[in-house]
Automatic annotation (TrEMBL):
<dbReference type="InterPro" id="IPR036505">
    <property type="entry name" value="Amidase/PGRP_sf"/>
</dbReference>
<dbReference type="GO" id="GO:0045087">
    <property type="term" value="P:innate immune response"/>
</dbReference>
<dbReference type="Pfam" id="PF01510">
    <property type="entry name" value="Amidase_2"/>
</dbReference>
<dbReference type="GO" id="GO:0009253">
    <property type="term" value="P:peptidoglycan catabolic process"/>
</dbReference>
<dbReference type="GO" id="GO:0042834">
    <property type="term" value="F:peptidoglycan binding"/>
</dbReference>
<feature type="domain" description="N-acetylmuramoyl-L-alanine amidase">
    <location>
        <begin position="74"/>
        <end position="210"/>
    </location>
</feature>
<feature type="disulfide bond">
    <location>
        <begin position="98"/>
        <end position="104"/>
    </location>
</feature>
<dbReference type="InterPro" id="IPR015510">
    <property type="entry name" value="PGRP"/>
</dbReference>
<dbReference type="GO" id="GO:0008745">
    <property type="term" value="F:N-acetylmuramoyl-L-alanine amidase activity"/>
</dbReference>
<dbReference type="GO" id="GO:0008270">
    <property type="term" value="F:zinc ion binding"/>
</dbReference>
<protein>
    <recommendedName>
        <fullName>Peptidoglycan-recognition protein</fullName>
    </recommendedName>
</protein>
<dbReference type="InterPro" id="IPR006619">
    <property type="entry name" value="PGRP_domain_met/bac"/>
</dbReference>
<feature type="domain" description="Peptidoglycan recognition protein family">
    <location>
        <begin position="62"/>
        <end position="204"/>
    </location>
</feature>
<comment type="similarity">
    <text>Belongs to the N-acetylmuramoyl-L-alanine amidase 2 family.</text>
</comment>
<dbReference type="InterPro" id="IPR002502">
    <property type="entry name" value="Amidase_domain"/>
</dbReference>
<keyword id="KW-0391">Immunity</keyword>
């Protein structure tokens, strides 16, 4: 069965795409025959398919509310990150928490106003914000330099839990959502697979992200005790 399939596949190099690949591989001496080309093409297709499945899988279970969906104001200016970033920072917003789309839209809009008007920043500071129900709100997103962690904004992205988490940690749905987002970021090549995770207080003089949340993230896989 296998040998028949292989024999037929070897004879079946007829599309332009296959012909081109076959020609290039033969020329570069990577293969000696069209049969080997077919085998190699099959392996490449399996790898591409698997990578796609992994990518879709990692991002499939995160619910992201886009900037336009929460009514973001336009940024005053934008600069792009060099991707993938190797640092991930965890914050809390130190505002009241929120659980629903309606209340979280208002909350995220008010955080953006505070950052842009009171603090004079170009946009909402964080890369992403996470609500108590595990919904993610897009801040600056994966690609743009944020204003979240002084001295490290060019090298990292930040997830901020909406609420204050000194006394108790965020709901499980929110914690799970951020873990999934980091995996999603890795599959999208926005975050390095060997990233290092920090709490805001690890690098700046602040109590952020609150004692309870800080204790929690110190148990997460990529938490690093070495300064970035
Ligand atoms: Zn912070």
């Amino acid at each position: 069965m296998t040998s028949n399939w292989f024999k037929e596949s070897c004879l079946d190099i007829d599309s332009d795409f296959q012909q081109t690949i076959s020609h290039v591989l033969l020329q570069k001496g990577l293969v000696q025959s069209k049969c080997q080309t077919t085998a190699m093409r099959f392996i490449i297709e399996v790898i591409v398919f698997w990578t796609l499945v992994q990518g879709i899988g990692a991002c499939a279970n995160v619910k992201i509310v886009s900037r336009s969906a929460w009514g973001a104001a336009a940024p005053k200016s934008v600069s792009n990150l060099r991707l993938p970033v190797s640092l991930v920072f965890i914050h809390h917003t130190e505002t009241p928490a929120c659980q629903t789309l309606v209340s979280c839209k208002t909350r995220v809009q008010s955080i953006q106003r505070d950052h842009m008007v009171s603090k004079g920043w170009n946009d909402i500071g964080y890369s992403f914000l996470v609500a108590g129900d595990g919904t993610i709100y897009e801040g600056r997103g994966w690609n743009r330099v944020g204003a979240h962690t002084e001295g490290y904004n060019q090298r990292g992205i930040a997830f901020s839990f909406i609420g204050s988490y000194s006394g108790s940690k965020p709901p499980t749905a929110a914690l799970t959502a951020v873990k999934k987002m980091i995996q999603c970021g890795i599959s999208l090549k926005k975050v390095a697979s060997r990233y290092r995770l920090y709490g805001h207080r690890d690098v700046n003089p602040t109590s952020c992200p609150g004692n309870a949340l800080y204790r929690e993230i110190k148990t997460w896989p990529h938490y690093s005790r070495t300064k970035p």
